[in-house]
Every structure is written in C-alpha cells, then in structure tokens.
Amino acid sequence: MFITIEGSDGSGKSTQFELLAEYLRKEGYDLVTTREPGGTNIGEQVRECLHDVRNERMTAEAEVLLYSASRAQLVEEIIGPALAANRIVLSDRYYDSTLAYQGYGRQLDLDALVNITKFATGGLKPDLTLLLEVDIIIGLSRRESGGVEINRMDLQATAFYKRVKRGYQTLVAADPDRWVVIDANRSTDMVQDDVRRLVEERLHEEGYGN
Ligand code: TMP
Prior knowledge:
Layout: E1 2-7, H1 13-26, E2 31-35, H2 41-51, H3 60-84, E3 88-92, H4 95-105, H5 110-121, E4 128-133, H6 136-145, H7 158-174, E5 179-183, H8 188-205
Parallel strand pairs: 1-3, 1-4, 2-3, 4-5
Helix pairs in contact: 1-8, 2-3, 3-5, 4-5, 4-7
C-alpha cells in the first residue's frame, strides 16, 4: 500500500510524517519511508540543486524536470520494489506536489505536467494521500519561527501559496476517494491523532495489521 503526505509549507507535514512513521513501526507494520525531492542518492543530489537559494535563475521548466528526475529514480529504486514485496510505503510528498506547486503555483501547463509525471512514475498512483491543510499566514509564520531550513521554494510570494492551496483543493475534488484532508491549524498532538486514526482505518480496510 502506497501512502503519501502532502501540504503547504509550514503545515507541519514533516513532523507529522516522522511521528506517523514511528507509530506504525512500533505497531509492527512493515514500513518503508521516503521523501521528495530525494529519497535516493541521486535524488538527494537533485534536492540540493533544487533547494539551493543561489539557483535563483532556475526556470520553472527546469525545476519541474528536476523534481520529476528525482521522482523517476525514487519509483524505480525504492517505491516499486517495496510495493512489489507487499510493504507499506509512506512518502513525504509525491507527484501531487508538482501539480500543486508547479501546475497551480507556477501556472505551468497541467496536461504537460500530467504527461511528464506519468513518464517519470510509470503511472504509479498513491492509494491514500493525506493533505495537511494550514492557513497560509500560520504556515508562513511557522516556517519563519521554526528553525527549519529555508529553501528556494520558501522565497515565493503569498499569492503563490494561495494558488498552491487552491491547487490542492482542486486535486482533492477531482479524486476524493484517494484524499483525506486534515485541519493542520491545530496542535501537533491533535493533528497526529487524526493522522494515525485515518491511516490505520485504511490499513485495516486493505487487510494490513490485525
Ligand atoms: P519540504 O522538504 O518542506 O517538503 O520542501 C520541499 C519543497 O519543494 C516545498 O516547498 C515544495 C517543493 N516541491 C515542489 O515545488 N514540487 C515538487 O514536486 C516537490 C516534490 C516539492
């Protein structure tokens, strides 16, 4: 089973991801965790290039192809083999980030992005995607005060984040069975309770665990 976590910057996504992974492992699930961009040696090198604030001249087209390159490597090297072995794969971001950030945020042609994504992933879709939805101002202030790495994508204007948020909402509306939306404006514990409950429900439905 393939589970992905998505969210705007400052949604607490990576914290929720770590807590969920720790919990599922403790509960005895056979879990593989990964992140985008990155997750493989080649992907981590691509991540450095993508996040480097000195790369301010990177075009939107180059950006999307780099994210897709990292993704292609990840699917082939990690996600595909893990799913074939019937393991649970949990990924911090996947192609929905490209549709939301490059498609809706940067306003690149969505049909082109869907095709590039299919090429990179061989059409591999997540079974379940959690969207951590946060108020844009709360998200940005969390990023500024959180002591986390500020990457090239963090330097975008508020209008960009509004488009990303609306983009995620459009993706959810188009495929509601795959998505679960969680209110991430609340405390870490409250959000994590929802995350665990929703993921475990789905795992049980799919026949994993007890
Ligand atoms: P994160 O490590 O905080 O998730 O940051 C990754 C950044 O990369 C975040 O701003 C979203 C961005 N991103 C894209 O713009 N497109 C993509 O396809 C992916 C995977 C990430």
